[in-house]
Amino acid sequence: SREASAAPLASGATTRSSKRSSSSRDSGEMNPLVELGLSLALSVGLAVVTGLAARYLMAAIEKSMRMDMDGGGQDASSIEKRLREILRKRGQKEMPPLDYYETQMAQVVTDPDDIDSSFADIGGLDKTKREIYELAILPLIEPDLFQGKLVQPCKGILLYGKPGTGKTMLAKALAKEAAAVFIPLQLSRILNKYVGESNKMIAATFTLARKLAPSIIFIDELDTFLKANTTETAYLDLIKSEFLTWWDGIGTSSNAQVLVLGATNKPQAIDSAILRRMPRAFAVPLPDLAGRKAILKLLFKDENLTSEARDFIPKLAEKTMGYSGSDLKEMAKACAMVAVQERTADFAERRVMGQVSNSSKEQLHQQRKTPLRPISVSDMITGMKKVLKTGEAARSYGRFSVEEEQRIQQEEEVTVDDASLRQLTTMLRAISNLSVNQGGPPSFESDNSGENNNNNTDDIPNIE
């Protein structure tokens, strides 16, 4: 009976399916298999399009990132050519491959032959220069002498002193004397708005320094980059941690010939972890009398001076106590400009007044053919008056402002007192005139008798 009952059921099912298929074809409905295939193709196509769009978007973002980091710098070919030339001078024929971040840091690399200052060009600081030479330069030029455990080359040196004392110039002279590549580490080049890019730039700085060794990584204004923990964000803490990690030996081995050199005028603001890695610190003070003489002689060495002016240099050094090396250089420029200003004074005045003509321009052009007169003693005195030592102009203005404010305040106080006195005099005169017209005011005088005082209470006005 089961077989008998199943047969019609199967037959009925087949009949309905056939009818459904025929009805589906008649009504235009899509076959489920075709519908599934189209859905699958649409999903795959959408995934492919999404992947291509994401790839294009990532390429655009990466291009934007690199444009932000490039900052309109040199192209990779010119950078590589310049580095090849540096290595060729050292006898190295092969150029180590550089990644993108190393190429970016290579833009600021300075060839030691292009540095125009040496120890001989720095006046004074003889003891400091000698100690730095023994501590920093000898390990770079004679590495075989520093192989023992106790004579390992120093990895960090700090130069500190007031602004304008020549810390940056001393750092460049150190690189030139050691024939080391000079890599200035600039905070503006390292910081990036994309997370992780700053860490890659720091790592690239050390790896590039190793590939170009001997090299010096110089950080000017060290207190702004690696300052003590105050209000720093976690982002800057990560950058500092990355820098310390590479500096502490992971990125530089004992024979890497890489020196980190820092300069600051606020050594107390530097993180103690940084100071620990800079075991040697050298003060770069204001030049003393002998230093100022040496600096002035270097500044005026190739200039046209009168014999009196050249003999006046020691006297000028005595009169410039407290001047930094930068102040002395600016003063020397001011001395040399006096003769130029004398020649162009008439033309400059006409130019300012809008009265320049072709004839005056031609006259100035003719005067250019005549050499300038030598620098005189008077020019030196004029330059010294124009250029004060660092901060003196601001302090003088501050003292002048305080004195001027006090003077104005005293004048105002005197003015107020005179006005009050005149008002009081006018009021007393008015009261006096009123008293005369009305027979005088009530008398409060007594005759030293207590009895009279008690008996005359009726004459006392009521003040209740």
Radius of gyration: 43 Å
SS elements, strand count: 5
- Using the 3D structure, state the CATH architecture of the domain at 76-283: 3-Layer(aba) Sandwich
**CATH superfamily of the domain at 76-283, called what?**
P-loop containing nucleotide triphosphate hydrolases
Measured as a percent range, the helix fraction is: 55-70%
List segments where confidence is low: pLDDT < 50 over at least 5 consecutive residues.
1-20, 441-464
Subcellular location: Mitochondrion outer membrane
Keywords: ATP-binding, Membrane, Mitochondrion, Mitochondrion outer membrane, Nucleotide-binding, Transmembrane, Transmembrane helix
Protein name: AAA+ ATPase domain-containing protein
Family: Belongs to the AAA ATPase family.
